[in-house]
Amino acid sequence: MNQVPHKLYLPEDKLPEAWYNLRADMKDQPDPMLHPGTGEPIPADALKGIFVEELALQEVDGATREVSIPGGVMDYYKTFRPSPLCRAYHLEKALGTPAKIYYKFEGNNTSGSHKLNSAVAQAYYAKEQGLTALTTETGAGQWGTALSMACAFFDIDLFVYMVKVSSQQKPHRLSVMRTYGAEVIPSPSDTTEIGKKILRENPETGGSLGCAISEAMERAAKKENCRYVLGSVLNYVLLHQSVIGLETKAAMDLLGEYPDMVIGCAGGGSNLGGLIGPYMRDKLTGKASPKIIAVEPMSCPSLTRGRYAYDFGDTGMMTPLIKMYTLGSGYIPHPNHAGGLRYHGMSPILSKLYHDGYMEARSVGQRPVFEAAKLFARYESILPAPESAHAIRAAIDEALLCRETGETKTILFGLTGTGYFDMTAYNSYLDDTMSDYRPSDEDLEKSFATLPRL
Ligand SMILES: *Cc1c(COP(=O)(O)O)cnc(C)c1O
Q: What is the 3 state secondary structure string of the chain?
């Protein structure tokens, strides 16, 4: 057999034409979103006031297995997809492992991450509906950048609430978003009531995703022809991100490979949910049983130390109630550097799968993560995003385990993005000023106390 190439780009005739809705293969569906006032499930109609109509429909549709990718979305996908499936030969050799390491690289676009996969779809549906503006939040800045790109292309105004600490750590992210025409507001801000309230209570706060979401929702509610969109967590985002897993599976099939384990970093769960789609389907239908591992930061351990409960998606308690693993919507993570993973909750789909034993989770500290990032950059040439480096850490640990046991496992992980805008974080690792922050049980209990009582 020919040697596997370092990089494999799927040929055009093998590209997925439809997204895959994982829920269609789940016998036990995730619990529905509830109205916080009545405690009743929210019908799609009610979601249309907050969300883009088509996205609201996708959100509540647990039955349709395949959703055609619209031509307008496909046309933009062609500017940056397919993304390559890579074999980490050099890293394998450096580790001295008999394991085969594959990774799907989603960072080859200006946003530098997988977020563009869903941003394009969301801006497309907004345009189709005749909306003229969108609001959103961004943590590390990747989602805001991706949506700025998509909104510029489809000619939609965009207001981005960016977590303040990130906007300070990554000022160049702001410049990129502005270049694409977005208005960026560091959050909490005085442009919304909730922002003002949070600032009054805690003037020094660096903000959080939950708080930025509240501000973005408030802004959208007050503006005509405007809706709020979200870059992770929600079911419709996982649907769009399934393109990652579908391409990966098709490429692995071409190579005659099947992973023993699939690893991804988990912030709100969108890249992991997208990557594992076809493999989780095999697991749900009893065809195969790959190990599936979510990797989260020790500082924001929603799966490994959170509660599986109904909670708000935001600090201001404006969203519907979502059943998920959560640290409590009041949780403000330590301002460390895994920006894109600093969310208190987790995708309801992944939460359900984790709860039902279909996947595992582990948390890792900042320093081991950056150690893995540096090693990976050296041998695989790509400078990874800190978020992605959580998955790299776990993949390396698994490969080192194989070195001990002599097992030739096939490891697949998601390399979600590049870290060019994360050099403050890299500096802090290189200067040895980085810490491995771990919240105490007391910190978490305090935050669990904010969980809504149903
Ligand atoms: C946003 C982001 C993540 C985390 O978000 P998920 O929704 O959990 O995928 C991971 N990596 C990168 C590069 C990101 O931008």
A: CCCCCCEECCCHHHCCCEEECHHHHCCCCCCCCECCCCCCECCHHHHCCCCCHHHHHHHHCCCCCEEECCHHHHHHHCCCCCCCEEECHHHHHHHCCCCEEEEEECCCCCCCECCHHHHHHHHHHHHHCCCCEEEEEECCCHHHHHHHHHHHHHCCEEEEEEEHHHHHHCHHHHHHHHHCCCEEEEECCCCCHHHHHHHHHCCCCCCCHHHHHHHHHHHHHCCCCEEECCCCCCHHHHHHHHHHHHHHHHHHHHHCCCCCEEEEECCCCHHHHHHHHHHHHHHHCCCCCCEEEEEEECCCCHHHHCEEEEEECCCCCCCCEEEEEECCCCCCCCCCCCHHHCCCCCCHHHHHHHHCCCCEEEEECHHHHHHHHHHHHHHHCCCECHHHHHHHHHHHHHHHHHHHHCCCCEEEEEECEECCCCHHHHHHHHCCCCCCCCCCHHHHHHHHCCCCCC
